[in-house]
Amino acid sequence: MQAIEQELENILAKDSVTLNGDRIHGQNITQNTEADSDLIINTDSNSGSGPIESLVIDKIDVNDKSVFTELWAVEADITTVDDKMDFNDIMIEENAWLEIAALWQPFTVMYL
Questions:
Q1: Which of 21, 63, 82, 91 has the fewest CB neighbours in a 10 Å radius?
Q2: 37 CB contacts (<8 Å, ≥6 apart)?
Q3: What are 10-41's pLDDT values in tens digits?
């Protein structure tokens, strides 16, 4: 099976955004300033039954907080400019780099 790669540039979302692919690399996800709820981020691999190989989001900018409903990835690198990022369900098979720019203290989550 051939991996599907999704290259993102700038996404403007109101209440939710769905990212689908085996390698999802993006620059910016921004929530519309008129939105009055959390930004829900849904992710899924191309097959729908396995992990995303690589998820890279350079910047998430939301009004309140971003909420990942489910994230299953081999590797993830996510940066948010806000101080609130929630994960309802997360499974990282190798490495995750989660940076909350508002706190100026990036941290790494590693699972064996």
A1: 91
A2: 15, 64
A3: 889 999 999 989 999 877 899 999 998 999 99
Nearest CA to 111 among 59, 69, 76?
76
What integer pLDDT is reported at residue 83 of this predicted model?
77
Question: Hey, what amino acid is at 105?
Answer: Q
CA angle 62, 25, 51 (to 5 degrees): 100
Give the Å distances, CA to CA, from 16 to 29, 38, 67, 101.
10, 8, 9, 21
Tokens 């508002």 belong to which residue?
102
Token duo for residue 18: 């769905």
d(C-alpha 5, C-alpha 35), whole Å: 29
Angle CA(33)–CA(22)–CA(9) in degrees, nearest 5? 35
Those residues of the chain that have pLDDT short of 50 are 1
